[in-house]
Amino acid sequence: MLPPMKPAAVQEFFRRLSAANPEPRSELEYVNPYTLLVAVVLSAQATDIGVNKATGPLFAQVDTPQAMVDLGEERLRGFIKTIGLFNTKAKNVIRLSELLIERHGGEVPRDRAALEELPGVGRKTANVVLNVAFGEETIAVDTHIFRIGNRTGLAPGKTPDAVEAKLLKVVPKLYRRHAHHWLILHGRYVCKARKPDCPVCSVADLCGFKDKIIA
Question: How many whole angstroms separate alpha carbon 45 and alpha carbon 49?
């Protein structure tokens, strides 16, 4: 495991990512907190592009828990059948919609514990919703962030929870709200799993990755 990045390097790391993209946005398309929650649940083991293709037509018709319940599981499966695990996801989306109506007046709760009680919603999904919908300073550790945390020395850890805890400690407050978006986008387009694009990386000189290739 790499030694942790020094605080001054962490500060500069996020300063550069922020300068390049001051207001990062989720690449999942949504119209309100409810559709964001549904999109994130559907995105497990799927690409944002694939989810957006399915949810575009869906969200044009359905944007509330009641409308989703009225649609029903069978018709929902028809919209999302191109997404992996669509049978299980359809069941979860209908049930979470029912629970939102029963427990929260049809609103998405701004509360981690309440979110994690919903079917298909784990810590990562709850973190995305809290951050994107409500502006909270949470960091949702997906495969990209887990890789970057360990590869660069930014937040080494053996589990996603360990990486999340370290990021929340080391990311300067100024950058915490958007940190997970910057890291996801950096992992998706630059610090890729198999072939990191080190020659175009804006933070390559701060990174502890031993096998980086700088042209």
Answer: 12
Q: Is the pTM of this model over 0.85?
A: yes
Whether residue 211 is predicted with pLDDT greater than 90 in this model: the reply is: no
Torsion of CA 35, 97, 135, 52, to 10 degrees: -20
pLDDT digits (tens, 9 = 90+) for 113-124: 999 999 999 999
Q: How far apart are CA 129 and CA 139, in angstroms?
A: 10
Nearest to 149 by CA among 129, 119, 133, 169: 169
Q: Which residues contact 213 (CB under 8 A, 6 or more apart)?
A: 198, 199
Residue 73 burial (C-beta neighbours within 10 Å; 0-12, 13-18, 19+): middle
Both tokens of 133, joined, read 């919908």
What is the amino acid identity at position 51? V
Active-site annotation holds for 142: yes
Q: Of 53, 89, 142, 211, which one is the catalytic site residue?
A: 142
Task: Go through the domains of the chain in sequence order and give each one's CATH number.
Answer: 7-24+139-206 (1.10.1670.10), 33-134 (1.10.340.30)
Q: Please pick, among 63, 70, 89, 124, the residue that the annotation labels catalytic.
A: 124
Q: Which two tokens stand for residue 49?
A: 């592009």
